Amino acid sequence: MTAADYSDKIPNNVDLHEDRRLQRALESWQPNFLRWWDSMGPTLPTEDVYLRTAVNVGREGWAHFGHVAMRDYRWGIFLADRKHDRRVAFGQHRNEPVWQKVPGEYRSELQRLIVIQGDTEPASVEQQRNLGATAPSLYDLRNLFQVNVEEGRHLWAMVYLLHAYFGRDGREEAEELLHRNSGSEEAPRILGAFNEETPDWLSFFMFTYFTDRDGKYQLGTLKESAFDPLSRTCEFMLKEESHHMFVGTTGIDRVVERTVQLMVEHDTDDVGPHGGIPLTVLQKYLNFHYSVSLDLFGSETSTNVGNYYTSGLKGRWSEERRHDDHTLTNDSVMVDAVTADGEIGQTEVAALVGLNSDLRREYIGDCQNGVNRWNRILDEAGMPQRLRLPHVAFNRKVGAFAGIEATPDGKGLTTEEWERGKGRWLPTDVDKTHVRSLMRPVYERGRIAAWIAPPRQGINGKPFDYDYVHLS
Ligand SMILES: [Fe+2]
Ligand SMILES: [Fe+2]
């Protein structure tokens, strides 16, 4: 049974009506969620938005598209289909049947992993809440809201697990997920990058490219989990997540495209006065979002993560496609480090301890694809400039390089050199003010702001000038 039951107050494909206690618990959390959505969700008043809603978890036709009032969006609980005879793919429980219940000895670790993942979902909605006021087009506005409602659904996905499998502690954690807020002094979100603001659309596209992509990789490790309900939840979330990546990738494509047009048209790199975003500013935003997203992977070495792996709680990216023993007890890897003489280098550690680095490496490779894509746009326009990912040691607050400063090329710097140079590598107040000055809303059908090119295609086969959003 994969189709969602929409007759329930909470749409779901987990037979919620068969477990009255759980159903009641979630139904009493629902108004709190809506209160949170009303007070912390999108601020732009809208009548309705052309949104997709998940209706099925199968391969085909899993989503329904239509205009809906956002507050009436059917946030639901959807798990990917159960795989017959699924077995643990790694760690000490390898080849044992996966778990349908939480083993007592891993209860607190699993709960922690779910809470950390769950905390990021509403955080990004909070970070993006004011962006509707400056959307470059109705198409973009619709994409923003699509991402927002789906992050809301991802919160539901994690809250379901907390309620269904973690008893009272889980219910308390579910409440806390609505009480913490991005950027709050008293109760901030758990991870640093989720307390940064997303004040403009360039930041939004960078966020959906780099930070949502971190989410993709974290979900990828949880999808491997021996705790089957977590695995199935994450598998379905990844499906929705790919649209968020698309928004980021194509958003930056379109900014680069427009910048190049202005460069050609005015025969200058300095397209700022012509209403564009200069490549140098794009590079600085990229540097910022990439480096804070790298922080989300944690330290290069971590015994906790090694233990999660051995216990079967969280695997590697594409675990089943790896050609090794899937226990890693005798393997070693090189990870980034500051060497004994204070240089940026590498060191050899046990593979289990280096698993954060393994995931980060996969992530970096994926990030590079976007950069190549954007550079192709520059190349095809005959521009010599190129965008690039900064060195892993650049602008880090977490891990081996937190205590040092480095250029985007990975050259070590004194604090003084860093202070003098950072305005060349990270967005300055002048850059941010310029970008924000371009952020004026364009709400007419088929029109678009001057700093970004229109998309090549609309959503779900609709044209770009479709009425994606009705404002109120
Ligand atoms: Fe998400
Ligand atoms: Fe996302």
Automatic annotation (TrEMBL):
<dbReference type="InterPro" id="IPR052703">
    <property type="entry name" value="Aromatic_CoA_ox/epox"/>
</dbReference>
<dbReference type="GO" id="GO:0005829">
    <property type="term" value="C:cytosol"/>
</dbReference>
<dbReference type="GO" id="GO:0016491">
    <property type="term" value="F:oxidoreductase activity"/>
</dbReference>
<dbReference type="InterPro" id="IPR012348">
    <property type="entry name" value="RNR-like"/>
</dbReference>
<dbReference type="GO" id="GO:0010124">
    <property type="term" value="P:phenylacetate catabolic process"/>
</dbReference>
<dbReference type="InterPro" id="IPR009078">
    <property type="entry name" value="Ferritin-like_SF"/>
</dbReference>
<dbReference type="InterPro" id="IPR017635">
    <property type="entry name" value="Benzoyl_CoA_Oase_BoxB"/>
</dbReference>
<protein>
    <submittedName>
        <fullName>Benzoyl-CoA oxygenase subunit B</fullName>
    </submittedName>
</protein>
